[in-house]
Every structure is written in structure tokens, then in C-alpha cells.
Amino acid sequence: MQYVGIDWAYRHARWCAISEQGELTAEATTPADEDGLLRLVARLGPDVRTCIELMSGAVSVRDRLERAGWRVEVADARRVKALAPLAAKTDKVDARLLATLAFRDLVSAVWVQSLTDFGQDDPDDLREQSREALRGYLEQLAPSVRPVSAERRFELRFDGAEWSIVGYLDIEDQSGDTVDVKIGAKHVSEARAERDPQPTVYGLACRTEGRPAGRFLFHSIRRGPIRSGERCLVVPAPRSAAQLVAMESRIAQTARQIARCVETGDWPLSSPDGWWCAPGQCRHWRDCPAGSPF
Ligand code: SF4
Questions:
Q1: Is 63 helix (H, G, I), strand (E, B) or coil?
Q2: Domain identity same for 170 and 189
Q3: For a substitution probing ligand 1, which of 105, 108, 275, 277 has the most ligand atoms within 8 Å of its CB?
Q4: Which of 30, 49, 253, 293 has the lowest tally of Cβ within 10 angstroms?
């Protein structure tokens, strides 16, 4: 097995290979095109684990390399840049860093989930449907919103805990409402609004920040052809004091379970119906007994 980092640029790709013993065995530049990839695969063989940065074209590069038998992980370029020594920021340094991340199995720290896991849907159709849905939102609901913040970060801390829960609020409105925009094939149902953890954690955050919780509203937008019903709906998600207490207990219980797993090293497999337990979402899918049997 070789571990390879690829820094893909407009005309050239800089690559670096590390052996199983962690020694740098080869590095060079190859044309950033199909021919260059083929030459790289021919030179290094099929037993390669590689890390490339997310950039335009990363998906097709990944697909081509995977077809050649390589294991490919895509890293978030911004996070990789935060790790690189800024004084010596070159393609060569980037390629070495990416190879080191693959060798040390650290890509998870800078990993991005699959961009192409669209299931049965056609990506072009989805894109057009989403554009149409957004146009509907901009006409129907957005004009009534008077934002005072967008993507505001909040942090929930608990006495004695070394960890915290971090969230981002889509929109805070002048009226005191918090708006969370959802686009989907179906509207957010009342049942989902009642049990969704997002508004409950928001309620806890307001309490932590010592301010009254305004209304939490889902702005629900349906994509696709609308044969009946509305394109856009406002679905309120009120929370009672008892629900906030129950959420605190749930968080504490989950934290205790995680602590036990850390102590014993015995981690349970995810429930198979979780959206995260899927090839495009979990980077351990190939190696995990719950994943695909490669
Ligand atoms: S594939 Fe394995 S590691 Fe990944 S979410 Fe499923 S159970 Fe967890």
C-alpha cells in the first residue's frame, strides 16, 4: 500500500507518495488531465490510498481514480490550509501534507462528505428544482423577513463538561423569531416540527444566553412540480419547559454513553437506517462491518 497526496491545480497536479513505513518514495508533477491521471496510476499501481483537496473537478478526479482501484478521500481545502506551514506554502508542501494525512489516517479531520451521492435523483434535475424552489421562496416568504443576523453561532456549555454543543442559526429576525429554511421534496410536517431537536436546542441556547426564546419557525420550501398545496409554508415549532429538560437529560445520557465507549473501546455500530451510515456519508464505510463488504 502506498499513500499519495495530490494537489490538483489548473494545469498541473503535484503528487507525493509515502510508503507503508512512512518514507517519502516519490514525488513529481503530472498534467492535470485524464492522461496525467492514467500515467500516475500506471506508475504507482492499484494499491494506493490517496487524499486530494476539494476543488472544482475533485469529484471527477476521485471517480477516475476509484475506477482504477485507488481508495480516494477528499479533504476540505480550507481545513488543509489551516494545517500547512504558511511560510512554505507551495504545491510540493501541500502534496506532502495530503500524503501524510492519508498515511496517518487523519483525513477525517479535514474530510468532506461525498458531493455526488444523489441516490436515484438526477443532479441536473435536482439543481433546477432547487433553483425553482428558491425563486418561489424569494417571492413568497423572504420579503417578510427582516434579518438581524445570519448563521449566528451559539454554544451550549454544561457545568463540569469539557465539551460543548455548537450550532448556527439560519436567520434571526427583527421580530425576535428565528427562522430555519428547509428545502425538500415534502414539506416539514407538524409531527416533524414537534420532535425535531433543532428548535429544542435553540430553546436551550436562549436559556443559556439568558434571553427569552422567540418563536422558532421552519420556512419550508417544496421543490419539484407543485400539483396541490403550497410551494412555501411557515411551520412553527414551539417548545415547552418540560421538553427542554428532557433534551438536557438526553444530552447528558448520550455524553455518559460516549464516555463509556471511550473507556472500554467498545463502540456500537450505528443503526442501519441512519442517513449518516451510508457510503457517501461515512468515510469508514468500506472498512466497517456495517458497511459495504468489499
Ligand atoms: S459504516 Fe460503520 S462507522 Fe460508519 S456510521 Fe455505519 S456503523 Fe458507524
A1: helix
A2: yes
A3: 277
A4: 293
Q: Ligand 1 centroid to 294 CA: how many Å?
A: 14
Q: Ligand 1: residues whose CB is within 6 Å? A: 269-270, 276-277, 282, 284-285, 288, 290-291
Helix 197-208 with 241-264: angle, nearest 10 deg: 100
What domain range includes position 206?
A: 123-239
- Could you read off the pLDDT of 200-233 as tens digits, one per residue? 999 998 888 888 888 999 999 999 888 888 999 9
pLDDT digits (tens, 9 = 90+) for 37-84: 889 999 999 899 998 876 666 777 887 888 888 888 887 766 666 665
The total number of structural domains that make up the chain: 3
147 vs 107, residue with greater confidence: 147
Question: 32 C-alpha to center of ligand 1: Å?
Answer: 33
Which among 266, 271, 288 is the best mutation to test ligand 1's pocket, defined by most ligand atoms within 8 Å of the CB?
A: 288
Nearest 5°: the CA angle 54, 60, 66 is: 95
Q: Choose the final residue of a domain: 88, 110, 132.
A: 110
pTM above 0.70, yes or no: no
Angle in degrees, CA 228, 221, 215, rounded to 5: 120
CA pair distance 94, 110, nearest whole angstrom: 13
Q: Is 183 within the bounds of a domain?
A: yes
Residue-wise pLDDT for 50-59, tens only, equals: 988 766 667 7
Residue 100 has a pLDDT of 87
